[in-house]
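SEVERITY: medium
COMPONENT: batch folding queue
REPORTER: lab tech (J.R.)

DESCRIPTION
The queue accepted two submissions in a row. Attaching both inputs and their returned structure tokens so the on-call engineer can compare them side by side.

ATTACHMENT 1
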Amino acid sequence: MSQLLRFLAIAGTLTGYTQSLSTFQWPNPLLSYADNQLYESDLDSFVAGCPGRDNTTVSAQWLRIAYHDMSTHDVDSGTGGLDASIMYELDRPQNVGEGMVQSLQDFNGFGLTTPFFGMADVIALGAVFAVLAQRLFPSPNKILLPI
């Protein structure tokens, strides 16, 4: 009887392991879409040269909204983080400024959100491009964050 139980335990473990190996497929259309947005889109043109806007830069505004969205993360409760909840938190005192609204308008205007690539992904992508713009497109303007 113990040999049968041992066999069933091993068989169940191996079955679960082989199923987990077969679930990932490449090319994965979800990852391909994200890669396409990161490497082939023209989002960098919006922050190239760090264009100014409202006594700051577009890059700074994009980085600021990403920071304010993710800074609500609570490790203990597992809530918050970069989840695009900033869209509903613009009335909080720490989220003031026209740059927050303008950044969300920028991100909505790109039309990148899909059922599998949400606003949180677009905000994160905006933060990546905001930082890369400083390295790829040198400019006398620097990211100045009024946090």
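ATTACHMENT 2
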Amino acid sequence: MATDKVFEALASTPRRQILAYLSAQQLTAGDIASRFAMSAPAISRHLSILAAAGLVVGERKGQYVLYRLNPDSLLNTLLGFAFEVCPTGSQLKREGAELAKK
């Protein structure tokens, strides 16, 4: 069931952090991995789970895949609101926006 996949995806703190980073900008898996102390395969697995839940989409650009939030997901609309009001989420979103400027 699709709802189960969404809750499975949101059950993980790193996946919620990835969603917060992606709420500010599109990122490659390498960009995402650089923000965590975990292996590239672990990041790839988290991204796969998020994609299977319909929360993120990946688009190939040359040799890279750019990940972004799925704009057609009502859940992402609600998450965007939550990231604005949640102290941790808004901090991660600001951090992602600052890193995007560099």
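NOTES FROM REPORTER
The chain is about 65% helix and 15% strand.
No errors were logged for either attachment.
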